[in-house]
Amino acid sequence: MKRIVVHGSEQNCQVAVMENGRLVEFYAERSSERGRAGNIYKGRVVNVLAGMQAAFVDIGMEKNAFLYIDDLLPAHLEKQPAEKPSILELVKKGQDIVVQVKKEPIGTKGARITTHYALPGRWLVYMPHADYVAVSKKVEPDKEKSRLKEIGDSLRRSGEGLILRTVAGGETADALHNDLVQLRESWERLERAGRISQPPALLYQDAGMLERMIRDLFTNQVDELLVDDEAMWREAERLVAQMAPAISGRLKRHGGKEPIFQSYNVEEELELAFRRKIWLKSGGYLVVDQTEALTVIDVNTGKFTGSSGLAETVFTTNREAAEEIARLLRLRDIGGIVVVDFIDMNEERERKAISDELEYHAKGDRAKPNVVGWTKLGLLELTRKKVRQTVDDMFYEHCPQCAGTGKLLRSRK
């Protein structure tokens, strides 16, 4: 059972994704602090650093945005030069440039930007200069992938790029064409605005939380979409009728006496999931420590003693931890480098089974975690893409007394 629960108010929109009664994803957006990932700006280059092969661009944010050379080279890998040129050959200080935010500013870092523009629609992603067609790996069977690839090739103009999304599976060529026409028109409006705008200027703004949720998450795999706020309910009706009319009957208005998040235990699950110490059902527990450089997760047996020996206890705890870690990465939107200190295992086959378990439970994660492998010290390394501000960043702040260390200085007296 997959359910999407939406709580709305004048101040914010909060979206909870539940699978079999458990919270697996949570998103929140304040109306006064709308995200910038996906937005396209006309900016001005303020500095070019040849040693870093990067440039800093003023797009109107508090911190200048970071543009790496890979995001200036052609999006199509086959069209990139065999050796990277100096970034000084591609951009100059004072130059106007149109860029898209690929990663929100986080902590002390400014936004990460690119010239590989991508406009997402319901069925496909339009890339005006990519010059290739790709199909989501999640589309099955292979025959359907081939059909979509053929449609994409027939629809795109020379130089254009398309990605056929997972939800495009089974859709008609006409539906895909209509989506492409709308995205082309958006790009043409953006280009016209770019020619007359003075930097820094916003040329294109990605959809708000509710529209992104219906566009990206409300698919045939969702059994129910529940909304509590009246105004948001009406907007959801309009968007579903436009984007997903075939499953419009799954959109429902929450009419219970209890607040919607209380009815589905969202608040309780959130509170538990964002603790530093997280208990597993068996009695084992995880300790999650996030730093600016990486996230470290420690696995412990805790109260769990097993029934047939130490090896069985360790393997059972690690297997349960792998499933929970996959959920926490997705729910807390943990990005960057992640290192997991599982309880030591002697057998290589056991380590492989645990990494396979984590990969299996991470399949539903749209950020596609990459399990790198085991280090010589027996730690499991993985990476995960992070694009938007996390719930941690939005609703939690560092303690003013300990400055986020979790420790206070003892009295020296």
Automatic annotation (TrEMBL):
<keyword id="KW-0479">Metal-binding</keyword>
<dbReference type="GO" id="GO:0006364">
    <property type="term" value="P:rRNA processing"/>
</dbReference>
<keyword id="KW-0460">Magnesium</keyword>
<dbReference type="GO" id="GO:0046872">
    <property type="term" value="F:metal ion binding"/>
</dbReference>
<dbReference type="GO" id="GO:0004540">
    <property type="term" value="F:RNA nuclease activity"/>
</dbReference>
<dbReference type="InterPro" id="IPR004659">
    <property type="entry name" value="RNase_E/G"/>
</dbReference>
<dbReference type="InterPro" id="IPR012340">
    <property type="entry name" value="NA-bd_OB-fold"/>
</dbReference>
<dbReference type="GO" id="GO:0016787">
    <property type="term" value="F:hydrolase activity"/>
</dbReference>
<dbReference type="InterPro" id="IPR019307">
    <property type="entry name" value="RNA-bd_AU-1/RNase_E/G"/>
</dbReference>
<dbReference type="GO" id="GO:0005737">
    <property type="term" value="C:cytoplasm"/>
</dbReference>
<dbReference type="Pfam" id="PF10150">
    <property type="entry name" value="RNase_E_G"/>
</dbReference>
<dbReference type="GO" id="GO:0003723">
    <property type="term" value="F:RNA binding"/>
</dbReference>
<dbReference type="InterPro" id="IPR003029">
    <property type="entry name" value="S1_domain"/>
</dbReference>
<keyword id="KW-0694">RNA-binding</keyword>
<keyword id="KW-0378">Hydrolase</keyword>
<protein>
    <submittedName>
        <fullName>Ribonuclease E/G</fullName>
    </submittedName>
</protein>
<feature type="domain" description="S1 motif">
    <location>
        <begin position="38"/>
        <end position="101"/>
    </location>
</feature>
